[in-house]
Amino acid sequence: MLQKIGQLFGVGVVAGVLVAALALPAVGGLGITARNIATGFLNMPSELETPPPPQRSTIYDQNGDVIAEIYDQNRELVKLDDMAPVMQDAIIAIEDNRFYEHGGLDVPGTFRAALRTAGGDTQGGSSLTQQYVKNVLVESATTQAEQEEARETTLSRKIRELRYAIALEQKMSKDEILEGYLNIAYFGDGAYGAQSAAQHFFGVDADELEIQQAAMLAGLVRYPYLYNPSVNPDNAKKRRDVVLDAMVQNDAITKKEAEEAKGKDLNLDLSNPSNGCMPSDQPFFCDYVVQEIEKSKQFGENETERARWLRTAGLEIHTTLDGDMQEAAQEAVDKWVPRKNQSRKVAAEVLVEPGTGEIRAMAQSRNYGPDENNRGETSINFTTGIDRGGSTGFQVGSTFKPITLAAALDQGKGFSTSFGGGGSTTVTGQRNCDGGRLPPWDVSNASESSGGNYNMITGTQQSANTFFAQLQADVGLCETIEMAQKLGLERGDGTSFDNENTQANNSFTLGSEEVAIIDLVSAYATFASGGTYCEPQAITSIEDQQAGETIDVENECERVIDKDVADGVTYLLSNTFDGGTTDGLEIGRPAAAKTGTTDGNAAASFSGFTPNLAGSVWVGDPRGPQAHPLRGVTLGGRSYGVVYGATIPGPIWEETMSEAVKGLPEESLPKAPSKFGGSGGSGSRSNASPANSEGGVPNVVGQEQDAAVRELEEAGFEVSVASNRIQSDEPRGSVAAVNPDPGSTLPEGATVNVFLSSGGGGNGGD
Question: Is pLDDT of 243 > 70?
Fold first, then answer.
């Protein structure tokens, strides 16, 4: 202790004499000048904050597997005990062999360095403490001016570093200073700190370094490029041997050990940790997480500050992604729409957990990359809106129709609500939210939908445009728009539906607005949760290593519609698997779903859910679906004349969900609310009413047309025979299917649609 006090007492005098000798060599009264400068030196600011240096941030999935690492500097902080003793010995021997003896000032080295610096020649020779101070000042600089001041080759910088170093020796132990230095020093080739350097050059952790490896690394810090073994191996080897000799002189190793180490080759095992989302196996979800942090005010005052925090704070970011579900989604989209397909079509899919909004999977059939001219490559996340690095949204067709169902049920309309008009109709009298009258709207059904009367059940099963057009007119366009907003929907470009174009959009119910897929699946998840909407959530918590705190990200959920309304929509969508447009796409447990195809088969979509998982799929051409429709395309070795929602999006959803739900408990769908005319039973096929229920639709499948029509009419139903026939295993000309399904409970006088068989098997759909 007395020795250290003595050293510190002399520091001021040494500094004063040093400055005077260098600055005033021809001036008399050197003693007085030195005393004055020494006094000024001791009065200089000495408190130096030593925050952790920049380090890598890591993004994890919900099982703790690494999704990506993101950083400005490749650095991983480790404790001194986790660095091999030979690494510590090597850096001390070559950079400051009296490190454990001085009080922050190595007098001979400092004189030598200061003299050469004053002469305009940058010179090392500073103690490890002084070097640590310089690195701290450089790394903590937040402005260009601070950076330049920390790096300037002036005597004043040397004196300032010395003052901080002396004060730091009183604040920190030698081991703490050494640990800080070995974590902050630059070892070249993009590696900061001993741990990252050991991993980069040798593929080992810092505590596994051997003598010759530690010596090579220690030799790098003076001139990282000159001695870079991957660029200048001969220089690196010579420098390594110099360090080994220094270690012998410092009694760190024996001469024999040094000679043995000199005889070994460099034996590099170069590697670089991935940086950013591009190398990730889940790049688009990774990008979404990055966007969430950079765009959210919760994580900083401005985007620049948040981006720096992400890349320098050594964050451990825990997310909602389920690795198995992500794999299932990625395999499905790649199978049906290969990444580099000639037609440049893309499939995008999102899975979300109802009741939490947590994103379980986010996949698209594209490689992640910056060059949109490369076929199969994009940096745009087609599942999300422009505010999260995505597109401006896409039309989703009939998967938007459940919004109108929710608006109708919310007004108390029942399942028996029906409209006629055949296969086409003209809707008049619609008004927007400002009370303006919209022009007449001519609307017709897709080829898969027949004419005749439809109620909510049959209209949903067959996705009848004429029914939904009239239902929207009955409910009100403004009320339908407001329901969409309640369910978290907006335009993909970030604007609300309160705009001139949307307010004049007769076909709002048919999905003609461009929305983000993640918003659509969140609306479906609201139905699955019984009416509770949750903001999509990708992050559960962030551990800030520098601040020593954990930020928990809470689910943002609120009830937006009554449970009966949500359950009613679920019931209606569950019936689409029973002879409807989703028939044949069951996943082995109760589910509800809806297909979607835009005008002219420009794009196609599919959305559906179980009680504990919702998924949405979109397939189209990001260059512009209307200009590049889904007609006459070949995808995955299959040729398609036209693509509907059940043609490609449906199988993607079915294959994804079948795998994704395996780890989830099987739950029944809610019963059909009796207030809307339901029987209190589920609409899913696994819980359908028996065919012989009193008042139920008779099972006439397989009968000849006349006999089937007669039996249905005798049961009290009106009958509409579709003009187009469908492929079926039933004999040609016989009844292939009825809609709603046999056993469905309908009010007397309701219309039952009859579809005749063309033979050949198979099915199609909107």
Answer: yes
For residues 574 and 669, is the Cβ–Cβ distance under 8 A? yes
Residue 496 has which token pair? Answer: 């609300």
Task: Please state, in angstroms and rounded to a whole number, the distance separating the CA atoms of residues 393 and 404.
Answer: 20
Which residues on adjacent β-strands are paired with residue 405? Answer: none
Reduced to 3 states (helix: H, G, I; strand: E, B; else coil), residue 657 is helix
Q: Residue 318: which H helix or E strand, with range?
A: strand 315-319
Taking the alpha carbons of 287, 289, 295, 299 in that order, is the dihedral positive or negative? negative
Pairing of strands 751-756, 718-721: parallel
Asked if 402 and 396 count as a contact pair (C-beta separation under 8 A), the reply is no
Give the integer Cα–Cα distance in Å for 25 and 33: 11
- CB burial of residue 25 (10 Å; 0-12, 13-18, 19+): exposed
pLDDT digits (tens, 9 = 90+) for 108-161: 666 665 555 555 554 455 899 999 998 998 888 777 776 677 677 677 777 888
What are the two backbone dihedrals, phi and then psi, of residue 673, each rounded to the nearest 5 degrees? -60, 130
| pTM of the predicted structure, to 2 decimals | 0.80
Return the H-helix or E-strand segment holding 419: strand 418-419
The residue-averaged pLDDT of 371-378 equals: 87
- The residue among 674, 667, 63 whose CA lies nearest residue 326 is 63
Query: How many angstroms separate the CA atoms of 139 and 137, rounded?
Result: 6
Is 351 in a helix, a strand, or coil?
strand
Match 């030196």 to its residue by tokens. 41
| SS3 sequence of 266-300 | CCCCCCCCCCCCCCCCCHHHHHHHHHHHHHCHHHC
Distance in angstroms (rounded) separating the CA atoms of residues 580 and 733: 20
Residue with tokens 């070097």: 131
Q: Are 392 and 374 spatial neighbours (Cβ–Cβ below 8 Å)?
A: no
For residues 156 and 148, what is the distance between their CA atoms, to the nearest angstrom?
Answer: 13
For 367, phi then psi, to 5°, come to -80, 150
Quick one: 367 exposed, middle or buried, by C-beta within 10 A (0-12, 13-18, 19+)? Answer: middle
Model confidence at 10, in pLDDT bands (50, 70, 90)?
A: very low
The Cβ of residue 134 has, within 10 Å, a number of other Cβ atoms equal to: 20
Q: Could you count the other beta carbons within 10 Å of the beta carbon of residue 256? A: 9
Report residue 216's pLDDT band, with 50, 70 and 90 as the boundaries: very high
Helical spans, DSSP H, in 623-746: 649-660, 705-714
**Measured between alpha carbons, how far is 50 from 132 in angstroms, rounded to an integer?**
10
- In angstroms, the CA 363 to CA 382 distance is 9
| Residue carrying structure tokens 């005052």 | 301
| Cα–Cα dist 104/621, whole Å | 65
CA atoms within 13 A on the CB side of 339: 14
Tokens at 579, concatenated:
């002879």
3-state secondary structure of 299: helix
Rg from Cα positions in the chain: 36
Is the CB of residue 562 less than 8 Å from the CB of residue 546? no
Closest CA to 240 of 251, 222, 250, 256: 222
Return the beta strands (E) in 611-732 as ranges.
Answer: 613-620, 631-635, 638-642, 718-721
Cβ-proximal residues to 10 (8 Å cutoff; 6+ apart), any chain? none
Is the separation of the CB atoms in 510 and 398 below 8 Å? yes
3-state secondary structure of 315: strand
